[in-house]
Amino acid sequence: MPYTTLSHIPSKDRKHYIPYLLMADEAEMIPAYLTKGELYAILSSEEEIIGVALFIAIDHETVELKNFALIPEVRGKGIGKDVVTSFFIRFKDKNFKKMIVGTANCSIENIAFYQKAGFRMERVEKGFFLKYPEPIFENGIQAMDMIVFEREL
């Protein structure tokens, strides 16, 4: 496996991981969830941080992958899928029944990634990204709606 460990990060140390969280979300949104849930640093075999994953329990059956990011140098190599798969097992062992994740309608790479990782489209939250302070564009498309994916654990 191209990474060796997932390191749980306590709430008091999370501000150091904001640069990684910013790879997947806007700066204005991160304070609302920074100290919630479980944050993990994804470490390479050289013990370097290559990404983060933050999970928040929605209820006793559902956990949300709130923020997931890998540094550009390791993307597209199967690491993300391996990491997410390991979290499927981890949260199933904690008795969760499903995992959800949301991404923008314009995040074509994320949409493909989540489907390859076994998620299925569950719903669309129309206008979700229109409440952000500044418009977001990816792939020449404005982020307007959030596509919510779900995977049974």
TrEMBL record:
It comes from the Bacteria. The keyword Transferase applies. Pfam families: Acetyltransf_1 (PF00583). InterPro entries: Acyl_CoA_acyltransferase, GNAT_dom. CDD domains: NAT_SF. Keywords: Transferase. GO terms for molecular function: acyltransferase activity, transferring groups other than amino-acyl groups. Residues 4-151 form the N-acetyltransferase domain. This is GNAT family N-acetyltransferase. The lineage of its organism: Bacteria, Bacillati, Bacillota, Bacilli, Bacillales.
